[in-house]
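Fig. S4 source data, part A: sequence.
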Amino acid sequence: MRMVTMAAALVGILSVATGASAQDNPSTFREIAANPAAAAAFKTMAEGHRLPDWIHGKSVESPGHEVMFGGEKVYVMSACKQHDCGSERIAVMYDPGKKIMYGLLSLADQKTVSETLTWLNIGPGNEAIDGRTILYAALTGSLENHPDAFNYK
């Protein structure tokens, strides 16, 4: 699988941005680029990681969700590789008040029936448990099916 550096991935995201106002909170993965604070938070989140090239825009998005995390309203968005959503997915959680983003990249190998999870900008601690739960729920569809179950105050 061809991988690209974070800088190239961010350029790709910026190139597929929708016409959302920069003042709005992003509600889809592509709208991150239209919000300067969210785009900067994405760049910081992904520092030191190599992201797949499909993040350039050849992705399929799921609708974003608003949940409570650490007493703050955050926005959770996800996307996957076009024509291969079962193998490559990403979810991000953006806190506009703190201007911070957390993420989860999932790469599944159908041959070995294994999944590699790469946590982006989320460390150990009690908040990390809830944050990881929200991000994984976004990838599995649980967040979409049960949005009120993922409000952590």
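Fig. S4 source data, part B ends here. The chain is about 25% helix and 35% strand.
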